[in-house]
Design goal:
The structure is a homodimer of 422-residue chains.
Chain A: E1 3-8, H1 16-31, E2 35-40, H2 46-57, H3 63-87, E3 92-95, E4 102-104, E5 113-116, H4 119-126, E6 130-134, E7 137-140, E8 146-148, H5 153-164, E9 169-174, E10 195-197, H6 198-206, H7 214-223, E11 227-231, E12 239-242, E13 258-262, E14 265-274, H8 279-289, E15 297-299, E16 308-316, H9 320-329, H10 331-334, E17 338-342, E18 345-351, H11 361-371, E19 378-382, E20 385-391, H12 395-405
Parallel strand pairs in A: 1-2, 1-9, 2-6, 3-6, 4-7, 9-11, 10-12
Antiparallel strand pairs in A: 4-5, 7-8, 11-12, 13-18, 14-16, 14-17, 15-16, 18-20, 19-20
Helix pairs in contact in A: 1-3, 2-3, 5-7, 6-7, 8-9, 11-12
């Protein structure tokens, strides 16, 4: 019997009626003869409420205890969901991350999954029961302490369980119909993506699209688990994320999967870096030691007269102060002249596996930006992505212009987009 | 180093300031050089709120899932308490019942502790940390499912851990100064009991005094763990419950430990029971099969003319319907004539280890009731207790009269009494 893993986010289980609706959806799948494993997040604002409580008690709570506290959230939602399913006449058993065999490292608040041993889940399925698993949490391999997986944790839990149970598909339920070619709050005529590759999803996630989290897509790619992003509220097909989205397709695959903007980065320029071997290594080693998450990097050719060059990179705004300090601390050994920083930037990206085999994609992209009067400050490309950095206030115009230029506009307006929760 | 176990109920950790106050109290004990293990209940109304949620989702939630849900309550309070202690500069680690080694049977909602394996708690103490343990919960031996211990569960958790860790004392913190000779809401001049025996506490608990729960006192007696019931808000000595309260005492031990009333019972009379061997056995077997908790039993001598007698017993009001049905189902084999039931009763008890060696206790008791115009409907005695059944509306007068007659009245008025929570 095929195993189907279904993940429901916090907004899908925000109150008793929502939990009962989700329970009906799950029983529907079970009724069609599937083995069903459900991964669930904490109800609505529970996590934020618990964080508030923690902050009332201590300005700097230890990670171990914060994880213990926050995991109470999924404990509630999963037990309530199991009750609602039971009420519909099916057997359901809820399991914590620890009970479900989600073994992690000990990095509280951002633990990585290192093994999945779903013996109890398989046992529940063998007994004909629906297994409900707490998302976002696990147990550390060495200390046996409760851990949380951090952002995107519940999606990752779902994919990890799907892989360990050799599931047919991992369904990620959300409050929209799937993944869109752009954020419908910005691009009103964004259209639903039917199928996309893992690589395109990775690039879209990295480009700031608030759809699936990077680590969840990475896990799915590594395990070759198809992800189906679909709506909690409608039975229609959503977006399939698979290894080869063209397989079995009868239509020509569209070139572009989507466009996205990311307003969370800052830009730092290191001015007057001596143009000699090992300088870039010294810079990025210093940033890595300070745990700065560097995204785009651009280095201009050096001015011949000075033998010096400028290096510009982007990183999350939250890392900026740490990055500046790390560079200043290393100024003596690197030998640059000075630093500038800029928080007013936006990264706008075009993603699509088709672009490598279609000439003229770059030309169309830059023409669209030019016609929309968008000034380009940095450029970075990969095999399936072009990103530019521009001013924050130009981001929406850039998105709209590129979306239209690549023929992504839908006939009607898209439903309003919302994130998939943690 | 002496281990001290401290238990704090839900009202002691109802909000962030309360949690911080309890944390200071704990750090105080730790600062005096003790190894400290803390057992904590869920915050304030959390348990009731979770039960409300469960009832919104399902009218009859399965016990396994209800336990999973309710145990989220202690998870929150223990993590927050650990954070607050951490903030005061001490190391604290919180543990679920399962992590603390509280192994139970599988009776969800009313599990019994069958073993305590506190390896992780001992490890935390060895590391110099304060261990915080979730009260009221454990893990089942066979299914490894999360269980709850039911009423009095947190007190029992504390005593069980104290026994397993060979603690010097188990301190039960509450919002009054200790155990009183009567409920101060009824008997305004109730006085604090300084020391009492396990047996007296068992009789008081059974008699309806909302102090320590029966099973907690039973566990302490079996393991010979001294219990110290004291106030969260004051450093004064509370009430010690020990094997021999007269040991080391210099004063003469008072005869009477206290008086209590229980308004939660109903009375059932089985009229016209054939007076032959095996009838009582048949009756109480039928009630046991129906899980009816029988308390007092009185059988009158039979009327010679009929060869029949009446049997009267009391049981919790909640068991009454089940008891009546069980008896009706067995009417054919038992052969009684009819049943009457009465929910308007109160049980009033006088408890004290001293009464067996002091003549005249019964006489004083019944004279006091008579002078207060209290009508006695049933009488039952043990070595250290006399109980009567009267009308509900006579209970307070009976309590007050007996309290005064035995010289228990304090000089001033007692602080208002409140229960110790679950």
């Amino acid at each position: 019997m095929a195993v189907i893993v279904q993940k429901f986010g916090g907004s899908s289980v925000a109150d008793a009626p929502s939990i009962q609706r989700v329970a009906r959806r799950i029983c529907d799948t079970k009724g069609h003869g599937h083995d069903v494993v459900v991964v669930v997040s904490a109800m609505g604002d529970t996590t934020d409420d618990l964080l508030d409580l923690a902050n009332q008690v201590s300005p700097d709570p230890p990670g171990r205890e914060l994880d213990m506290l926050l995991t109470a959230g999924e404990r509630m939602s999963m037990a309530l969901l199991a009750m609602a399913i039971h009420d519909l006449g099916y057997e359901a058993r809820s399991y914590t991350g620890s009970q479900a065999g989600l073994i992690t490292d000990s990095a509280h608040g951002r633990a990585r999954i290192i093994d999945v041993t779903p013996g109890r889940i398989q046992g529940a399925l063998d007994d004909g029961a629906i297994a409900i698993v707490a998302g976002f949490q696990g147990v550390s391999y060495d200390s046996k302490d409760v851990t949380t997986l951090g952002r995107g944790g519940s999606d990752t839990t779902a994919v990890a369980l799907a892989a360990a149970l050799d599931a047919e598909v991992c369904e990620i339920y959300t409050d929209v119909d799937g993944i869109f070619t752009a954020d419908p709050r910005v691009v009103s005529r964004a259209s639903k993506v039917g199928r996309a590759s893992y690589e395109e999803m990775l690039e879209l996630a990295a480009a700031g699209a608030k759809v699936l989290h990077l680590r969840c897509v990475e896990y799915a790619r590594r395990s070759d688990i198809p992800i189906h992003v679909r709506s909690t509220f409608s039975p229609t097909e959503g977006t399939w994320v698979v290894a080869d989205p063209t397989a079995g397709g009868t239509m020509e695959q569209p070139i572009i999967a989507g466009v996205a903007a990311d307003l969370n980065d800052a830009k730092i320029t290191i001015i007057g870096v001596p143009d000699r071997p090992g300088e870039a290594a010294a810079i990025f080693r210093a940033l890595a030691v300070a745990s700065v998450n560097v995204d785009m990097i651009v280095q201009n050719v050096s001015a011949e007269a000075t033998g010096r060059t400028d290096v510009t990179f982007t990183c999350p705004k939250g890392d900026m102060a740490r990055a500046l300090q790390a560079l200043l601390d290393a100024q003596g050994s690197i030998g640059f002249e000075r630093l500038t920083s800029d928080e007013g930037i936006a990264k706008v990206s075009l993603v699509g596996a088709g672009m490598r085999s279609h000439p003229g994609v770059s030309a169309t992209f830059f023409e669209a930006l030019s016609e929309a009067d968008v000034n380009v400050e940095m450029i970075s490309t990969s095999e399936i992505r072009i990103s530019i950095v521009t001013r924050t206030e130009s981001a929406n115009a850039a998105l709209q212009a590129v979306h239209t230029a690549f023929g992504l506009d839908a006939d009607g307006e898209a439903v309003v987009y919302a994130g998939t929760g943690r």
